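Hey, weird one. I pasted the tRNA-specific adenosine deaminase sequence into the form twice and got a warning about non-standard characters only the second time. First submission, copied straight from the form history:
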Amino acid sequence: MIEDRTPTADPVRDRWRAAMRLALDEAGRATKGGDVPVGAVVLSADGSVLATGHNEREATGDPTAHAEVLALRRAATALGEWRLSGCTLVVTLEPCTMCAGALQQSRVDRVVYGARDEKAGAAGSLWDLVRDRRLNHRPEVIEGVLADECARLLTDFFRNR
Ligand SMILES: [Zn+2]
């Protein structure tokens, strides 16, 4: 009997795979500057790419230069306003507390991430800041999109250091 290895269709996650591939490409750029490979993409309501960003903390010496923050700033510049209602941020690693705060402030509709960050994640793992019921704005969170590839990029990076 031939085993069927075709992954079962996942209607919630499958539609974000293409955007996550872009975020993975962006993550790869971070390592050139000696940064941990994390990449992010902001999509507009119609699904077009508004902005991208990768971790640039080492490259720029800026403690706030996480992929998500850079992508949100560029998306706001592209739109000409700080409110990113209707937008989706796609990122390879679960956002930290700072980025979860920035996502709150930006009013994005949705956060999609790949790998969980059990040590510092603020979107479901260690905290769940983005969906805290005490806050008015709570973006939808979809986790686990291409999670293995996103995690592998990080493990490979730390192994080769
Ligand atoms: Zn962060």
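That's the output from the first submission. The warning seems to come from a hidden character in my clipboard, not from the data itself. The pocket of zinc ion is lined by residues 66, 68, 95-96, 98-99 (CB under 6 Å).
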